[in-house]
């Protein structure tokens, strides 16, 4: 890598080479230089901080990127660490014990495209990550930060998938891990966390209650790295790898349209950040692209704000089967509105019945079993086509963020054996399936 510096927004501080906070080893955060406020641009040292001391706006990682070439990235491992130069992680990250999510398949969805009337459609299938959701990406980056910061405890409030990813990564890293979930979660998501840790805490309340409790604990206890609270800026950067991979797997170019589920809104905004960085670094050609957000109507505060032309998101009380998207007060909601409006996309929502229908649609057309979040995204894609909000002649990518085995109940009463028969030929012949 050469050392010429490419600036990306937010611009690095004048003291771009400023040392990270005390006690950190050199290069602990790779090419990251500071945490910058998304609202006022104020910068603070890299550390376990998430709110701007000036205006309380959210902090985001700022970098001074060296020149990065396609060849350097392609020579890397087939996981997210091939993009380590673009992440707040040390250069030796591949060799330190950690999880290796990413480089999931980008599948050309010809059957689904034909069914929906789209010319070219891809599914970015993140259900094949180590704990079967895209959360392994963000957790890997948060774990790196927790290690570099010398955190004692690795923790999170979660709607389910994050708990699975944190519990698994924490077990492998041998760090004390405590995860907090709403007590009404789907059984598979509870078991998928509990199997990795004996410190799973079920909280009587919804995700927003669990999140509030986590912030309180983070304030009271020293040395806790709550992946999506006090190390959130580092965690969030992991979602950029979805954007990098989509571009690289398309042959180093950007798609025309991307449909992304929205819970806190972090993933959607980071896919956009990834595309912007690839353009700035000259790794892809600059071209217009549209980003679309997907929510379930039972928790659609961002979609509602989009449709009302609002800049702020009014919190709601979630009531939907899409529990992994059930964040009533989404931290990145306003930034999702910005990205979708700026790129010419929209935020749309569908009913729980449409979510169930879309899970079966994706399964029967592409052989992919998605969870309710993916049902939401595919169902919104369908609605966008039917309502003319998405251009069917343009190349489209839909992101599948999780696995259907975690939300079996959602479709358990829709799909069943065609017949239950005696083990005889006559009984089979009578079914009409021959
Ligand atoms: C967490 C999650 C999302 C959305 O994440 P945000 O970045 O908070 O918007 C989408 N799909 C699944 C399956 C998730 O677990
Ligand atoms: Zn600020």
Tell me about this structure.
With 434 residues, the protein is α/β, with parallel strands linked by helices. The protein is built from 15 helices and 14 strands. The protein folds into three domains: 5-95, no CATH class; 106-131 and 239-410, Rossmann fold; 135-235, 3-Layer(aba) Sandwich (Rossmann fold). The chain has a six-stranded mixed β-sheet, with helices on both faces. The chain has a four-stranded antiparallel β-sheet with strand order 1-4-2-3. α8 (240-249) packs across α9. The chain is globular. The protein binds pyridoxal-5'-phosphate and zinc ion. Pyridoxal-5'-phosphate is lined by residues 133, 135, 161, 261-267, 324-325, 371, 373, 401-402.
What characteristics describe this protein?
3 domains, binds zinc ion, Rossmann fold, 434 residues, binds pyridoxal-5'-phosphate, 4-stranded antiparallel beta sheet, globular, alpha/beta
